[in-house]
Amino acid sequence: MQQALEERAPARFMEHVSGDFVGNGGIDRDALQQMVRAQVLANQRVGLTFGPAEVEVQGSSATIRFSALATGGSGRFLPERGGAWDVTTGWREEGGDWRLLHASWERR
User: Fold this and answer.
1) How far from 50 is each of 37, 101, 106, CA to CA, in Å?
2) 7: pLDDT strictly greater than 90
3) Which InterPro entries does this UniProt record tie to the protein (predicted)?
4) What is the pTM of this model?
5) Are the C-beta atoms of 40 and 11 separated by less than 8 Å?
6) 3-state SS, residue 46
């Protein structure tokens, strides 16, 4: 998913998101897709850096907690925008692949 965002490929990012995804404020998969597209359109370059992940797996579901630093800009040497978040994600195995089921994020 990180690679897809950095390569400006929102459709590839969304391949890993479950059809019944729910995020902050109740956003659904379609709203997430629009958010991802908007970031790709607004930023010629998108960068992501993640802190250590805490992973809990229980059968066919998993929870992952991590910190994230996102940067964006015109593609020049230094990013023009950035933000840091604490993120909690829930995953479900679907047909042998892991899909993002829910996510919550809080700005640091």
Assistant:
1) 21, 19, 14
2) yes
3) NTF2-like_dom_sf
4) 0.89
5) no
6) strand
Q: How many CB atoms lie within 10 A of CB 55?
A: 10
* Lowest-pLDDT choice from 37-51, 69-83, 88-102: 69-83
CA pair distance 91, 55, nearest whole angstrom:
11
Which DSSP symbol is given to 5? H
DSSP assignments along 9-45, one per residue:
-HHHHHTTEEEEEE-GGG-BHHHHHHHHHHHHHH-SE
What is the structure's pLDDT at 74? 82
- Number of structural domains found in the chain: 1
Rounded Cα distance between 39 and 43, Å, is 6
Contacts of 65 (CB under 8 A, 6+ apart): 53, 54, 86, 87, 88, 89
Q: Which of 16, 27, 33 is nearest to 91 (CA)?
A: 16
Which CATH number fits the domain that encloses residue 36? 3.10.450.50
Q: What is the mean pLDDT of residues 67-73?
A: 92
| The predicted structure's pLDDT at residue 23 | 97
